[in-house]
Write a structure and sequence with these properties.
heterodimer; A: 368 residues; alpha+beta; Rossmann fold; OB fold (Dihydrolipoamide Acetyltransferase, E2P); 6-stranded mixed beta sheet; 5-stranded antiparallel beta sheet; 10 helices; B: 274 residues; mainly alpha; MetI-like fold; 14 helices
Chain lengths: 368, 274
């Protein structure tokens, strides 16, 4: 059976407020798709619509080729992991894991077999008789996962499942989640606001903002070829530098400074009439130098921030703040520095529509 | 150490006065029920039975079918409690976990009925019950008491503390509402259900005005009505016998309270804080 999920002009409003706006996309069978976005962007609502916990305001939702707008949650063959885990507090770990199956009248032997497998897989042996209140956050999260796994559903939905864990546990839990999915290959939809989780867990990322889908693609493309300015600045930390520039006679003008437009971009942007653009470059792709260099932008160091493995150097260029990442801290406030980048690390966006102007074709080929 | 005493003694005195005020009528009733009538009349306030007697109890048990009356009271209180808790539970469940149009308005109207005094509904209820021929019948006493907004309110407060995601997990498991109520909601609000039940039971057990209106024949009487027999114009003023009836009336609710007091106190404090 085809297990894809398709949104056809789906929108959701609460009274006057439209929280999800005409979504059109398909989650492929068996893939790990991440719904990513800042809080309030409609990602959780989208997930809850798939689960049948929120009715659609307009549009149609298809699961496995069938329109499911009016199909109740319980008949959609969904397993879901909630942010607060939603474990029944009065039931033991074992009862929590098996309750759903017992209600569905799955034969006793089968219930035992599946639950034992899940308990083993998630290292919950010895905890079967404990109540949720006697477990740590990480253990509760694993019980919630075990309860979802034993259902052997076609669709696996996770609503910020790792947000209550500490950083170290989160890293191991991410790996666990990927392993679980590799083992069962359900259609896997995962909501998070954490881009690291999205990058590490996702096969594709659907980035949402203000109820609209901004970009749906692989983590690599979302990072290297963002579709619009929002995507470019949301993904990556510190965020991409985006600066309004003009291109006149194949020269990029940043306020009063000028650097020549690289050849590949000259050809690519030749057909574009609008010459007032937004230029983008990631902090990790900027090189800083104390010595003057050819085709470099000149700026003054404002301050330096310690990020552990690198230093973020905040630089003022004609009143606009740029961020560059550098290995060493040898920068002093007020010092004059020179910034350069490679041509294939540049991004150009339309200032009006905020959409990307695309990339020279041989850059794209190199990425692949 | 000295300052501590100076600080606590006045409070202890206040509490002692408070407790004495609360306990006095109960001790008075128990003490008086064991005193001969003449002696009690001569010195009303001194309730300690220096010459204890069981005469008052003998008079009460001899003049009425106490077992029947206690059974009537128990039957009414149990049925009323059972029904009222069921209706309150179902209504509270709907108000907390179901989505329907006009939910908030309806809940507000339900809660508003708490503030309607009994005297307003008494006459209409009396006319309706008489009209359907249930006056002087235990069912007639029970009928108007079968639903109560207070119960809905108390259980609503308790159910509200259950995270919605628990119900959503159950819905994803394709559970019926009956299953959700029985396996998930009921175990989680058990303390509230228990204490609400005890409270309803005691209220109904002590109910006086409505049974007085409804019940005419002695064999249908409840304990509070029996009490009235010895304290009114019809029954004379055998107040020591009346006190014996009062003690008998007190026993069952008191036993219930002592058994479940932990739940009762828990519910009232938690519904206040949350």
């Amino acid at each position: 059976m085809n297990k894809e999920i398709r949104f056809d002009e789906v929108s959701k409003s609460y009274g006057e407020t439209e929280v999800v706006k005409s979504l059109n996309f398909t989650i492929r069978e068996g893939e790990r798709l991440i719904l990513l976005g800042p809080s309030g962007c409609g990602k959780s609502t989208t997930l809850r619509m798939i689960a049948g916990l929120e009715p659609l305001t307009t549009g149609d939702l298809y699961m496995g080729g069938e329109r499911v707008n009016d199909v109740p949650s319980g008949q959609r063959d969904i397993a879901m992991v909630f942010q607060n885990y939603a474990l029944y507090p009065h039931m033991t770990v074992w009862q929590n894991i098996t309750y759903g199956l017992r209600v569905q009248r799955v034969p006793k032997d089968e219930v035992k077999k599946r639950a034992n497998e899940a308990v083993r897989m998630l290292k919950l042996e010895g905890y079967e008789d404990r109540l949720p209140k006697d477990l740590s956050g990480g253990q509760r999260q694993r019980v919630a996962l075990a309860r979802a796994i034993v259902r052997q559903s076609q669709y696996f939905l996770l609503d910020e499942p790792l947000s209550n864990l500490d950083a170290k546990l989160r890293a191991t839990a991410r790996k666990e989640l990927v392993n679980i999915h590799e083992a069962y290959r359900q259609t896997f939809v995962y909501v998070t606001h954490d881009q690291v989780e999205a990058m590490t867990v996702g096969e594709r990322i659907a980035l949402m903002y203000e109820g609209e889908l901004q970009m749906l693609d692989t983590p690599e493309r979302v990072y290297h070829q963002p579709r619009n300015i929002f995507t470019a600045t949301f993904i990556g930390s510190p965020p991409m530098n985006v600066i309004d520039v003009s291109i006149i006679d194949d020269v990029i003008q940043v306020e009063k400074q000028r650097i020549p437009l690289p050849l590949a971009w000259r050809r690519h942007l030749a057909g574009i009439s609008q010459k007032r653009l937004t230029f983008g470059v990631r902090p990790e792709h900027l090189s800083i130098d104390k010595e003057q260099k050819e085709h470099a932008l000149c700026g003054t160091v404002k301050y330096v921030e310690n990020h552990g493995d690198t230093y973020a150097v905040y630089i003022d260029i004609a009143g606009v703040e740029w961020i560059a990442l550098h290995e060493y801290r040898n920068w002093t406030q007020g010092e004059t520095v020179y910034l350069t980048t490679e041509s294939k690390r540049m991004h150009f966006f339309d200032r009006e529509t905020t959409l990307s102007l695309g990339y020279p074709i041989h850059f794209l080929e190199e990425e692949q | 150490m000295q300052t501590k005493w100076r600080y606590t003694i006045p409070w202890h005195i206040v509490f002692l006065l408070f407790i004495t005020t609360l306990l006095f009528p109960i001790l008075f009733a128990i003490g008086s029920s064991f005193r001969p009538l003449e002696e009690a009349y001569n010195d009303v306030l001194n309730f300690i039975p220096w010459n204890p007697t069981l005469e008052n109890y003998r008079i009460f048990f001899g003049s009425m079918d106490v077992i029947q009356i206690t059974f009537n009271t128990f039957l009414i209180a149990s049925c009323v409690t059972l029904f009222k808790v069921c209706t309150s539970f179902l209504a509270a469940y709907a108000f907390v976990f179901l989505k329907f149009k006009g939910k908030d308005v309806l809940y507000f109207l339900f809660i508003a009925t708490i503030f309607i005094p009994f005297s307003v509904t008494m006459i209409p209820n009396y006319l309706v019950i008489s009209d359907i021929g249930l006056s002087d019948h235990l069912v007639g006493v029970m009928l108007p008491q079968l639903a109560d907004a207070i119960g809905i309110f108390l259980l609503h407060q308790s159910m509200r503390t259950i995270p919605m995601s628990l119900i959503e997990v159950a819905r994803l498991d394709n559970l019926s509402h009956r299953r959700i109520m029985k396996d998930i909601v009921l175990p989680l609000v058990k303390p509230a259900v228990t204490s609400t039940s005890i409270w309803f039971f005691i209220l109904s057990w002590n109910e006086y005005v409505w049974p007085v209106l409804m019940l005419k024949s002695v064999e249908q009487y409840t304990l509070p009505l029996a009490l009235q027999m010895y304290m009114s114009s019809e029954g004379g003023t055998h107040f020591t016998v009346a006190m014996a009836v009062a003690v008998v009336t007190m026993i069952i609710p008191l036993l219930l309270y002592l058994t479940f007091q932990k739940y009762i106190i828990g519910t009232f404090t938690s519904s206040g804080i949350k």
